[in-house]
Amino acid sequence: MSVKLLRVREGDGEREAGPVAKEKVLAGMPQQLTEHFFTNAKKNFFCGIWSSDSGKWTLTYSEDEFCYIIEGEAIVTDADGTAEKVSAGDAFCIPAGFEGTWETIGSVKKFYAIYEE
Question: Per its UniProt record, what InterPro entries does this chain match (predicted)?
Fold first, then answer.
């Protein structure tokens, strides 16, 4: 069996839209859209495009995530209160165990790749 290259093109993935879970929201009424492109055979690696509009919510990561901001900006704040602004063109990783908040300023779109043990 031959393994084929999988191209990731916006509009070609499986889409899921809805609000950020109410119990996590700290400000606003953020809506999010996930366009999922790939899950590996072990079901522990995923990638796609995620976007949201304005709002702030809590984060608790059990997974490792690579992010590349395509459009917009957000503020990621860790449990110690250290805040970092991320904007279009920024690439970063959020490691498993991270706790803090995500605040979308206006709207933001990111490419994500997630690995979970």
Answer: RmlC-like_jellyroll, RmlC_Cupin_sf, UGlyAH_Cupin_dom
Domain of 85? 15-115
Per residue in 2-15, pLDDT (tens digit) is 888 888 888 889 99
From first CA to last CA, the distance across the chain in angstroms is 27
* pLDDT attached to residue 6: 83
**What CATH number has the domain bearing residue 110?**
2.60.120.10
Q: What is the pTM of this model?
A: 0.92
Read off the pLDDT of residues 69-79 as tens digits, 9 standing for 90 and up: 999 999 999 99
Specify whether the CB–CB gap between 53 and 112 falls below 8 A: no
Q: How far apart are CA 116 and CA 96, in angstroms?
A: 8
Alpha helix (H) ranges present in the chain? none
Residue 53 lies in a domain: yes
C-alpha radius of gyration, the chain, whole number: 15
